[in-house]
Design goal:
mainly beta; 9-stranded antiparallel β-sheet; 1 helix; 3% helix
Amino acid sequence: MIVTTVEETTRTIKDGAAHTASRSLARRGFFFSETEAVDHLHLAPGAEIGVRGREGTEEIWFVADGDGHLLHADGSTGVLHRGALAVCSLNSGARLRAGDHGTQLILVAVAPRHLTAAMPPRLPVAS
């Protein structure tokens, strides 16, 4: 795992306004790691995100501050408040829309089980 010390954020602008600010906290350094990335995201009010360019990963979104809505591919929605955890399986099509005051997330992207099952064992092995 490569851990970053970058303090500046990457900012995304949409329609002339701030949309998302993100900072990479860690990235996979080698093939033999289940965790692809750990990011800190700040979504502007009403901003939406989906899979963040990591085709083939599953994602866990932890709401660190604010609230938002989890939008499922089938059209159903769920409310996410501070402290909520959303697990988005491979190809789920899930999206997250920030609430009226914006949303801060910790995003963890992991390789799906069919890939991690093919990885060689690592030591030490948890029991």
